[in-house]
């Protein structure tokens, strides 16, 4: 159900930006636009379909939590 | 221009959202709760909460013209109650009986049964704080009877209990300082802080003689005491004089009558009306001894004088001032004594020590409630009588 | 060296932007997080220490910016580190900024849902906020700066309003004892607000849009000082009114607002304050979002930054919903991992860039403007 809304939203975004970029032959912009949008599509559809994708905060927590905990433990 | 067209279309769509909001709740669908009472009930071996709510009675349908003195005089509040395993459960169970959404936004006070308070206040405080509609200014009261029964007592002069308690809270300190209704935020603060315990206003249910010609006796309430806590458990009552002693000690008392004895009589013959007071607590340690000094300064006016000797002299005022400060001292000492007896640090001696001398506090913190009864408390009062009211010398019948 | 966007802002606009970068969420979350660790000395860690830290951040970021006048972050990091590592720095900052936008949006949503509209899904708030911010970003920095000038004054008004009205309830005895437990808890309490004060590092991304880049440092110091004063007052008032218990509230300032009652009729003002608050957080998100878009555009070598606005918005929106499962996770994240992470992108990376630039004697050409 939500996925339909998502598809409509993405169609809207593409229709809003892409035609102008193609008309003015801004290929670099089009590349960046489609790359980022593709990424957005992947993570948002994954979220809607309840698929687990790596979470950026989980990544940060993995890298930074141990040293931070070590640092803060000196001050408690 | 594409963008202009888009804007117009969006604007037109938005028009549909203007007439209302998504999650609106009309006032006709709300049951506005003005006060709640909390009891516990044992049922099938389980302890359950009994939540009693006073709800503002909606105007009766097709009520016709208002005013003209609706002789029936139906009270504007309506009492309902329900059981639940937790307070939230009980709250929602109310909706099994009443057709409107329980709305706490106008909650004015919470009455808690004494026995529930003896078991601990923390659970109740947690429920009240977590709810986003309940404000930190909600007043807390203790009642010796079932809160369920308290909430059906008659409100006097005000249309409902909530208004009545609210107004009494507003004038308690400025009229007599013999009662003090504290709010949720302060009580929670005192519960969670170490070295200070809360004092929650207490209700005395009374049956008053008829209040109108040919009326029946009415069941009303009186707020004339304070329930002292140890940590979060209710341990005992302070009477109204002790409450004033407590208020003087912590510097919250404002005004109030002090009846004192000038000559050796069996009755009190002078009254001094306190007009302002301040109080400060200092705690110090000496080895294993803890000493506390309560400094109070007060001012008052002469408001009643039952003997006939000359009083409107500088000397006379000094004597009165002395008597006045003695009276204050006695009252504060009474409250201190009660606090020690109950092992309830309502004055916050521990917190005062913590403030002034954190290192020493660390030493006593663990066994503070054993130290508390041993604290040597001195009360220093400087009190003045400033004015004599509208007459100088007492009238002498001759 | 093309700037992608031709907008220019003045020194005072820049300063207010910096204030908005930090203030709206800091005021909501910091008091509880600091008081939790530092207790009665929280105002020292949350006010004094953070101000000093903010000064350091401002110095690093603006010194770096001044070395390369008129150049954007990606341009000069390419100059300092070489082309590919420079792009890598850019990519890192896209990630950082997008993630921060997502977190700020989440904070905003959590605040609204838990204290005002429990029934509404958080998606609605997050979506509306991102949509609004996206429109602001597409309009460019000048529009954001002007709008911000207006909103920031409303925000200050709201804060002063809360603080003065609740002042009569304050009991300053609650502020004693100071320095209980020595200096360590004060430092511990300082780590969390450090991430907030450090947000001023955005100076080095926004600097190229300043009329006169020499004003940046001064404006940064002024903003840091202002933030320090506000945060100190914020923490002191929260402590004085509620005592240590303030640490148990999720949003002490909101509870302060609900506590206001003047003479029995000036009550229930928190909805009014909320309205101003929403405006403030919208500005905060817009600025961060704008920085993310600008860095992205420079990293991908674009002529126009507008095409990346919406895709980044989609990512922010998705992340704002998926990154945390619940509000405690958010608070805990700030409490632990965020400290190290924010230290990295706010201080270590800029400082390293500056250090390498000095060592390799790189500096941008002074352009006669």
Characterization of this structure:
The complex is a heterotrimer of chains A (about 80), B (about 400) and C (about 375). Chain A is an all-alpha fold. Chain A is built from 3 helices and no strands. Chain B has 2 domains: about 200 residues, no CATH class; about 140 residues, GMP Synthetase, Chain A, domain 3. Chain B has 12 helices and 13 strands. In chain B, strands 1, 2, 3, 4, 5, 6, 7, 8 and 9 form a 9-stranded mixed β-sheet that branches. A 4-stranded mixed β-sheet of chain B has the order 10-11-12-13. In chain B, about 35% of the residues are buried. Chain C has a two-stranded antiparallel ribbon with strand order 1-2.
What are the key terms here?
heterotrimer; A: 76 residues; mainly alpha; 3 helices; 82% helix; B: 398 residues; alpha/beta; GMP Synthetase, Chain A, domain 3; 2 domains; nine-stranded mixed sheet; four-stranded mixed sheet; 13 strands; 31% helix
How many structural domains does the protein architecture of chain C include?
1
- Structural shape of chain C: globular
Q: Which range does the strand content of chain A fall in?
A: under 5%
State mean pLDDT of chain A (0 to 100 scale). Answer: 85
Query: Compute the gyration radius of chain C: what is it?
Result: 20 Å
Strand line-up in the sheet with most strands of chain C: 1-2
Q: Strand tally of chain A, please?
A: 0
Give the H and E element order of chain A.
Answer: HHH
Output mean pLDDT of chain C.
86
Percent range for β-strand residues of chain C = under 5%
What is the terminal-to-terminal distance of chain A?
A: 50 Å
């Amino acid at each position: 159900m939500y996925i339909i809304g998502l598809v409509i939203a993405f169609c809207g975004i593409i229709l809003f930006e892409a035609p102008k970029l193609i008309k003015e032959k801004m290929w670099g912009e089009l590349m960046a636009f489609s790359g980022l949008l593709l990424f957005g599509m992947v993570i948002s559809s994954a979220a809607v379909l309840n698929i687990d994708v790596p979470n950026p905060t989980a990544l940060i927590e993995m890298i930074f939590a141990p040293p931070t905990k070590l640092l803060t433990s000196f001050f408690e | 221009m594409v963008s202009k067209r888009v804007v117009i279309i969006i604007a037109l769509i938005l028009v549909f959202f203007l007439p209302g909001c998504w999650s609106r709740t009309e006032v006709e669908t709300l049951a506005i709760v003005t006060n709640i009472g909390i009891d516990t009930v044992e049922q099938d071996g389980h302890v359950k909460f009994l939540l009693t709510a006073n709800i503002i009675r909606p105007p009766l349908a097709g009520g016709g013209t208002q005013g003209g003195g609706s002789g029936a005089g139906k009270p504007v509040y309506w009492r309902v109650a329900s059981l639940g395993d937790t307070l939230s459960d009980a709250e929602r169970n109310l909706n099994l009986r009443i057709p409107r959404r329980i709305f706490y936004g106008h909650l004015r006070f919470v009455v808690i049964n004494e026995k529930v308070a003896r078991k601990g206040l923390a659970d109740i405080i947690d429920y009240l704080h977590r709810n986003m509609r309940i404000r930190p200014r909600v007043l807390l009261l203790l009642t010796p009877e079932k809160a369920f029964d308290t909430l059906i007592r008659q409100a006097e002069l005000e249309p409902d209990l909530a208004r009545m308690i609210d107004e009494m809270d507003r004038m308690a300190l400025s009229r007599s300082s013999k009662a003090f209704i504290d709010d949720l935020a302060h009580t929670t603060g005192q519960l969670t802080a170490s070295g200070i315990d809360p004092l929650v206003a207490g209700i005395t249910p009374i049956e008053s003689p008829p209040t109108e010609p040919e009326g029946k006796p009415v069941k009303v309430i009186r707020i004339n005491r304070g329930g002292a806590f140890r940590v979060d458990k209710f341990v005992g009552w302070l009477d109204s004089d002790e409450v004033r002693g407590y208020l003087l000690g912590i510097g919250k008392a404002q005004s109030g009558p002090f009846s004192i004895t000038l000559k050796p009589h069996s009755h009190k013959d002078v009254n001094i009306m306190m007009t302002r007071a301040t109080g400060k607590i200092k705690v110090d340690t000496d080895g294993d001894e803890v000493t506390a000094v309560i400094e109070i300064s007060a001012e008052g006016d002469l408001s009643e004088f039952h003997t006939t000797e000359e009083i409107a002299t500088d000397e006379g005022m000094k004597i009165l001032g002395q008597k006045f400060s003695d009276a204050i001292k006695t009252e504060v000492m009474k409250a201190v004594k009660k606090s020690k007896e109950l092992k309830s640090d309502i004055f916050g001696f521990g917190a005062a020590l913590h403030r002034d001398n954190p290192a020493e506090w660390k030493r006593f913190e663990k066994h503070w409630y054993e130290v508390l009864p041993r604290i040597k408390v001195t009360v220093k009062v400087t009190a003045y009588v400033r004015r004599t009211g509208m007459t100088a010398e007492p009238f002498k019948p001759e | 060296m093309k700037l992608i966007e031709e907008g220019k802002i003045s020194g005072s606009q820049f300063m207010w932007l910096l204030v908005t970068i930090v203030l709206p969420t800091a005021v909501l979350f910091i008091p509880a997080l600091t008081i939790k660790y530092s207790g009665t000395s929280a105002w020292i860690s949350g006010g004094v220490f953070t101000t000093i830290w903010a000064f350091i951040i401002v110095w690093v970021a603006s010194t770096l910016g001044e070395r390369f006048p008129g150049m954007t972050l990606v341009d000069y990091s390419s100059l300092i580190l070489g082309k590919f590592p420079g792009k890598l720095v850019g990519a890192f900052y896209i990630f950082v900024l997008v993630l921060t936008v997502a977190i700020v949006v989440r904070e905003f949503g959590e605040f609204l849902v838990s204290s005002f509209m429990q029934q509404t899904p958080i998606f609605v708030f997050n979506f509306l906020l991102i949509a609004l911010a996206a429109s602001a970003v597409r309009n460019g920095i000048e529009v954001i700066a002007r709008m911000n000038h207006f909103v920031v004054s409303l925000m200050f008004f709201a804060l002063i309003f809360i603080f003065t009205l609740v002042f009569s309830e304050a009991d300053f005895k609650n502020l004693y004892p100071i320095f209980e437990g020595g200096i360590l808890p004060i430092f511990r309490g300082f780590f969390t607000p450090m991430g907030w004060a450090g947000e001023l590092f955005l100076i080095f991304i926004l600097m190229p849009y300043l009329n006169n880049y020499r004003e940046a440092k001064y404006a940064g110091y002024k903003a840091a000082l202002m933030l320090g004063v506000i945060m100190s007052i914020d923490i002191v008032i929260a402590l004085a009114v509620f005592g240590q218990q303030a640490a148990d509230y999720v949003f002490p300032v909101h509870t302060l607002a609900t506590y206001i009652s003047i003479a029995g009729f000036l009550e229930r003002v928190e909805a009014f304050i909320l309205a101003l608050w929403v405006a403030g957080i919208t500005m905060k998100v817009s600025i961060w979002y704008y920085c993310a878009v600008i860095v992205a555009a420079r990293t991908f070598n674009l002529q126009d930054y507008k095409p990346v606005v919406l895709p980044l918005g989609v990512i922010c929106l998705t992340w704002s919903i998926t990154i945390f499962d619940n509000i405690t996770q958010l608070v805990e994240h700030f409490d632990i991992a965020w400290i190290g992470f924010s230290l990295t992108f706010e201080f270590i990376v800029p400082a390293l860039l500056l250090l390498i630039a000095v060592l390799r004697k790189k500096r941008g050409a002074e352009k006669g403007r």
